Request: fold
Amino acid sequence: MYASFKSIGAYKPKEVRTNKWFEDKIDTTDEWIFKRTGIKERLVASENENTSDLGTKAAEVAIQRAGITAKDVDLVICATLSPDFSAMPSTACLISEKLGIKDVMAFDISAACTGFVYALSVAKAFIESGMKKNVLIIGAEKASNVMDYTDRNICMLFGDGAGAAIISRTEDKEKSIIDVQCSADGNLKEILYIPGVGSPDDKFMHMKGNETFKIAVKTLTSDVEKIMAKNNYVNEDIDLFIPHQANIRIIKAVGKALNLTDSQKVLTVEKYGNTSAASIPMAMNDCFEDGRLTNGKTMLLDAFGGGATWGSAIVKFNG
Ligand code: UT7
Reply:
């Protein structure tokens, strides 16, 4: 029994916030932001939309595209760093309620920007062990809730949004999730963090940007090299390289080190900014909707985030 990636969906908040908006708030310019990050604009959820609302809307699309109903889902996993409630209930519980899913295990994953890859790894294990049949995985962020809009080191980098997928059983290895590898190093806890619970005066995200940048490039490159070698994959086997969208310079540096072509690389950072756990599934959804992602295509996923956490995956799309 193998785990297969059956469907992808996303939800994009309506408000578009351009770089110009930040020029009035912090000491920055549109030119600086675009040159250093590749970001032109990001999406921002409305005041009455929370992370669980974004996640629910993305999940509805993924469920419908998988050709199942919410009743068929037997595990709900939500990856987020901006949960509705800081400790409980989990965002996955709230999404289950909104989808009308009852009596089904639901929990959150706290792995920051690597959260969707972690969720994929857990879903794969539950399916392959025979314990679950249809796992709903979600990456959802209302990152605007954890941004300090006076901190120019970080506030212009992040955006809101959600992506979701259904992972189901298959007997066809050729249509399965080939491999997912995830890792972490708590020694790097200080490069990227949100104090939040236990530090009620500070609910905002903090980052040592340049340090994070350098570690991310190194880690992401070696992580992809490892998963490709382990599975005897070469560059030509990959149709779409879908990395976490933090900074275009990171993606280009990793792409260059790995000799990936421009047509393999998927870039959404310009229009969505960094949507943390939502960035990979939102990029994947764009590829599905514009026709680049079709049944049988091979995706290479790669992410790095606070923790530090990182992970990569080789996935055949079976939607
Ligand atoms: O999603 C999880 C993983 N996240 C990442 O991987 C993000 C990693 N980091 C980055 O994307 C980049 O490090 C940043 C975009 C955050 C910063 O770019 P950088 O090229 O590393 O810039 P820097 O931090 O080295 O700063 C360069 C200069 C500094 O001025 P001086 O010291 O050269 O005079 C900063 O004070 O840019 C200044 N600066 C700004 N200037 C205008 C920092 N932030 C800004 C700003 N606008 N918003």
In short: The chain has one domain: 1-319. The chain has a mean pLDDT of 97. The pocket of oxa(dethia)-CoA is lined by residues 28, 32, 36-37, 113, 152-153, 156, 209-210, 212-213, 216, 246-247, 250, 274, 304-305 (CB under 6 Å). Residues 185 and 289 are 36 Å apart (CA to CA).
